[in-house]
């Protein structure tokens, strides 16, 4: 009776966590086991060339290492994006003109980021900064032009964020940012980033109102003290 053979492809161990760092290159080798399960024979193969196009598939992870410096830059990017969006609206005197500029910056940064095939600090943070600008503008526009109260946009973006997470997990069976080495996962990742920026803007706007409402309620500390 002939032996049962198995052909199994296994990524090198560095594919997951190792690729989160820009200093780790993509190991294009596959380890193939051809033989009986009890005595596999290791064969080294080569991963087929990734699809080429205007937006090529990544050949390495496209997110930075999550260290302290990442959160420092993230905070600066968020604050800078909101300040830039507000500055454009005030200086130009027109939300429409400001929105057109913000959308232009967003599209330019989007193309730059998705044209890269591995993590590039300049492209990554430029896109994050443009999302902070454009996301702030979108959240404000939903209130100023469409008339949705900020409480409504907060709830809306929270739902959008939850839906994106659900679709991401349903499609990829992981939400790990260490696995952002395919274009589809990168799309989910940046959709989450955009939704969080818009949600943060809406929430930051209604937070002072909630605080004022809370302290003005009958029986609150400030009311009772007066």
Helix content: 55-70%
- Multimerization state: single chain
Shape assignment: globular
* SSE order, one letter for each helix or strand: EEEHHHHHH
What does the main sheet amount to? Answer: 3 strands, antiparallel
Largest sheet strand order: 1-2-3
| SS class | mainly alpha
Rg for CA atoms: 24 Å
Number of helices: 6
Question: Any descriptors?
Answer:
disordered C terminus, 226 residues, 3-stranded antiparallel sheet, mainly alpha
Short description:
The chain is built from six helices and three strands, in the order βββαααααα. The chain is mainly alpha-helical. α1 crosses α3 (121-144), α3 crosses α5 (183-216) and α4 packs antiparallel against α5 (183-216).
Description:
The chain has six helices and three strands, in the order βββαααααα. Strands 1-2-3 form a three-stranded antiparallel sheet, with no helix packed on it. The protein has helices at residues 68-92, 95-115, 121-144, 150-172, 183-216, 221-225; strands spanning 6-10, 29-35, 42-46. The chain is globular and about 45 Å long. With 226 residues, it is mainly alpha-helical. The chain has two domains: 6-46, no CATH class; 68-212, no CATH class. It is 58% helix and 8% strand. The longest helix has 34 residues, at 183-216.
